[in-house]
Amino acid sequence: MLSKRVIVCLDVRNRKTTKGIKFQGNVDIGDPVEMGKQYYREGVDELVFYDITASAENRPMDIEMVREVAQRIFIPFSVGGGIRSLDDMRAVLLAGAEKVSVNSLAVKNPAIIAEGAKAFGSQCIVLGMDALRVDPGVKIPSGYEVVVKGGRERTGIDAIRWAKEAEKLGAGEICVNSIDADGTKAGYELNLTSQIAEAVGIPVIASGGAGKPEHLLEVLTKGQADAALIASMVHYGEYTIPQIKDYLASRGVRVRIPLI
Question: pTM score > 0.85 for this model?
Answer without folding.
Answer: yes
